[in-house]
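User: I've been trying to design a sequence by hand for this structure and keep getting stuck. Would you show me what you'd pick, starting by listing the structure so we're on the same page?

Assistant: Good idea, let's start from the same input. This is the structure you sent:
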């Protein structure tokens, strides 16, 4: 958490002025009991109405000045806290973008969402409250004790006993609660995970009639979170009653001692009232301090979780632009796999084993295999979404590890399995592929992707507004627009990762023909479950259990590769039926 404070460096002025104005307000507040004592002893006791009015006006002036100081302090504190949270949020988002697919897989999307939202809001609130109250409350507590000694030293000894006792209670509860709040946030991750899974998979859940089971699972996780919150809440709830008991016993002792000393003529009645007011101030400030500590405790737990993500070193390091290599345009091969193995995370087994493959420029390569055979894993190594466990992957004769991120990704257009479009116009979505693309270039890419009728049929054409996730488009429309988005950048290597699954055979065939005729003849990788989609590829790679079990043209594989023959026959037979 403390490492995050470096993001406050641009708000040093606000971080200093906020607490200073709060201390100024507290200073005026500490003068109030003395003015009240003077009113009682000199004004009311001597029936001096003029003095009483003058002191009352002084009280009003202290209140106004204190209010102005408080508002100013809150302005500076809020400005620093919001600016701090903005910088941390940007840094966290940027760091997450630098993480590899493997890193994000290990952290989990629900956890990252929690850290970016709930945890961040709690940290912002904690910084705000810290700047406002962390110095003010102790200042008032010890200031009230010192002022009490100026009124009467013997009666003020009550404060000397009370304050340490309260400190033990407050800080003891704080030390117990910090690890418990960390566990509460972990339970919250579980609830968010269930929520996300249920919302994204609602159709699957309904299709399998799993509503009751998922409801029960959500309730179980929610119950765990509730129990954890109740447990830590019970402990933190002890703060107020215990402090109130200690303070009230202290007030009883203070009034008793004060009454005896008034009878002895040592102090005045106004002095007793002043001492009581100082004890009341201590009560109020310690309650504030107790609540502040609970908030700060939560913030520290949340801040540590955010810092844990920031401390996570990306498992994939790209060289800088100056250090990076450029592709060799003279290389015969666009992509080469040299005995490449792929292993996910801490898995003990390879997802891909001994992939040895060379693809010439302009060649169209089909990749097929059963579910889980490693088709997507193979093409994900080309743009370096995942690093090889052993062996190498080369693009234009240069190892992908030697490219800068920008240079490598600019060569490659990827259309992933899941169709993802963003809220905005069609034009905005197309320009994700190339931010400088003209409307003519966008229309050309759309025509190649067989999506011209999709755009022309929408009101506004390229200005048609796509809903979040492309909800106002069909599955086939989303896939064609995603392909067009990849084509806008005019990639040297185009990867279609099962991205035509929602297209009919005629559209799929027209799409492949249009891509083949594209200017520049990109090297194309087509990952598909359908043999018909890759039958006309220059070369077909057949995968089974992470290994290449067949490689060649369609007719040759039908004769020589049993896995390919089984896939083809199963699909051909189903079409005949």
């Amino acid at each position: 958490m403390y490492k995050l404070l470096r993001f406050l460096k641009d708000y040093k002025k606000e971080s200093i002025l906020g607490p200073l104005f709060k201390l100024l307000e507290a200073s005026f507040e500490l003068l109030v009991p003395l003015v009240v004592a003077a009113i009682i002893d000199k004004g009311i006791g001597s029936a001096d109405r003029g003095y009483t009015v003058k002191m009352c006006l002084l009280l009003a002036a202290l209140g106004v000045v204190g209010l102005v100081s408080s508002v100013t302090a809150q302005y500076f504190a809020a400005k620093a806290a919001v600016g701090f949270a903005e910088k941390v949020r940007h840094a966290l988002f940027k760091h997450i973008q630098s993480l590899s697919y493997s890193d994000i897989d290990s952290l989990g999307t629900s956890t990252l969402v929690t850290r970016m939202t709930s945890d961040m809001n709690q940290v912002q609130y904690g910084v705000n409250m810290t700047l406002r109250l962390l110095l003010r409350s102790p200042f008032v507590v010890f200031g009230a004790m010192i002022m009490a000694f100026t009124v009467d030293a013997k009666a003020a000894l009550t404060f000397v006993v009370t304050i340490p006792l309260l400190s033990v209670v407050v800080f003891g509860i704080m030390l117990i609660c910090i690890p418990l709040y960390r566990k509460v946030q972990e339970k919250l991750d579980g609830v968010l995970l269930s929520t996300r899974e249920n919302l994204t998979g609602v159709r699957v859940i309904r299709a399998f009639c799993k509503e009751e089971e998922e409801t029960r699972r959500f309730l179980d996780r929610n119950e765990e979170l509730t129990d954890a919150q109740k447990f830590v809440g019970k402990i933190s709830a002890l703060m107020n009653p215990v402090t109130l008991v200690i303070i009230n016993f202290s007030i009883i002792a203070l009034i008793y001692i004060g009454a005896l000393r008034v009878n002895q003529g040592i102090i005045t009645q106004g002095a007793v009232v002043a001492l009581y007011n100082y004890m009341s101030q201590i009560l109020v400030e310690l309650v504030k301090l107790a609540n502040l500590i609970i908030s700060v405790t939560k913030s520290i737990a949340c801040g540590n979780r955010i810092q844990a993500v920031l401390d996570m070193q990306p498992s994939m390091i790209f060289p800088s632009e100056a250090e990076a290599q450029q592709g060799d345009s003279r290389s015969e091969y666009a992509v080469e796999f040299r005995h490449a193995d792929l292993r996910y995370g801490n898995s003990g087994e390879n997802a891909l084993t001994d992939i040895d493959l060379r693809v010439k420029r302009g060649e169209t390569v089909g990749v097929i295999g059963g579910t889980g055979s490693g088709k997507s894993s193979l093409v994900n190594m080309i743009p370096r979404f995942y690093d090889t466990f052993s062996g190498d992957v080369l693009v234009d004769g240069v190892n992908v590890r030697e490219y800068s991120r920008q240079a490598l990704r600019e060569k490659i257009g990827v259309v992933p399995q899941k169709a993802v479009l963003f809220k905005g116009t069609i034009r905005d979505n197309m320009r994700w592929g190339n931010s400088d693309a003209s409307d003519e270039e966008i229309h050309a890419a759309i025509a190649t992707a067989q999506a011209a009728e999709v755009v022309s049929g929408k009101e506004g054409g390229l200005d048609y507004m796509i809903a979040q996730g492309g909800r106002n488009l069909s599955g086939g429309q989303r896939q064609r627009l995603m392909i067009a988005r990849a084509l806008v950048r005019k990639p040297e290597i185009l990867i279609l990762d099962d991205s035509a699954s929602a297209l009919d055979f005629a559209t799929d065939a027209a799409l492949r023909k249009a891509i083949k005729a594209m200017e520049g003849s990109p090297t194309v990788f087509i990952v598909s479950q359908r043999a018909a989609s890759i039958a006309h590829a220059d070369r077909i790679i057949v995968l089974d259990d992470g290994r290449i079990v067949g490689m060649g043209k369609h007719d040759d594989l039908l004769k020589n590769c049993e896995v390919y023959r089984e896939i083809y026959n199963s699909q051909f037979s189903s079409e005949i039926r």
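That's my pick for every position. To get oriented when you compare it with your attempt: The two ends are 64 Å apart (CA to CA). Residues 49-98 form the longest helix (50 residues).
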